[in-house]
Each structure stands twice: as structure tokens, then as C-alpha cells.
Amino acid sequence: QGSDAGSIVQVPIAGGYAKVALELMAYRGVAAGIFAAATSTTQSGTATHPTPISLVSKAGSWVVSYWADKSNVATTSWTPPSEVVTRGTSFGSGSGALGTLSADSGSGLPTGPYGGLTALANVVSSSAITWTVILQA
Asked: 64: closest CA among 33, 26, 32?
């Protein structure tokens, strides 16, 4: 529901310990159960993280981009690409901390390839993964 924004969501972790960065995003006007997603391979030894390219097959679809990195020196800021609207960030602390950035296209897009958007972390990551998720209209 629209009134749920800002609500607390509890997610139990089996086994007791895990490194987790969770951002819950909700969109209306999306075709239920119809989306395309692409993930990149793990990136390491760089602060520059491009998203994978995926195909927008239906005009008006929105695209969510997500960046997550892990480093021995915690990421404390991201520089997002200019093509996106930032929706959230999270930053861990200490060795092996996770840092995340979530963003979207800000509006419906025409058909065609989308992605290859590069975000810059303020530190070199030991590993990172990026996502491109197409929310079909």
C-alpha cells in the first residue's frame, strides 16, 4: 500500500550471521510477474562499476539499477551516473563492509538496450556486483 512507505520490514536470517544489504523498492503500474533482469559478473580491484546491458522490450518500462560492493576499507559514498535518479544508499562499516546504491530511470523508457551505467565508489572494491532490472509497463 502507498501508506507503507517508511515502514519497518523484518527479514530473518537463517544461521544467525550474514553480510546483508537490503533495499526494498516498490513500483506501481508494473505488469505483475513480468520483468527481465540481468546481472554482471563479479568485478574486483576497481572503484568503477558498470551495470549490465539488458533489452527494454516494451515502451514505457522503467529500469532499476543496483550496485553493491564489498571492500576492506568501507565505501562511504557513491557517485551515480547522471542518467539515473538515486533512490537509496547503504553503507556498512569495518573490514569487509558492504556499500550499495539503488537508482532507477526516473521515467518510462523507449524500447532498446539499456544499461552500461557506471557508478563510482569512493574506494577500490575487493568485489562488487551490479544489476539491471527492467520493470515492464
From this structure: 26
Give residues with Cβ within 8 angstroms of 35, minimum separation 6.
Answer: 133, 134, 135, 136
pLDDT of residue 80: 98
Plot region of 83 (φ>0 → left; ψ -120 to 50 → alpha; else → beta): alpha
Phi, psi (degrees; rounded to nearest 5) at 32? -55, 125
Specify whether the CB–CB gap between 129 and 71 falls below 8 A. Answer: no
Rounded Cα gap, residues 4 and 123, in angstroms: 34
For the chain, give the longest Cα–Cα distance. Answer: 44
Reference 11, options 29, 27, 24, 1; nearest CA is: 24
Over the chain (137 residues), the average pLDDT of each successive run of 10 is 77 77 79 72 88 92 94 91 95 86 96 95 92 90
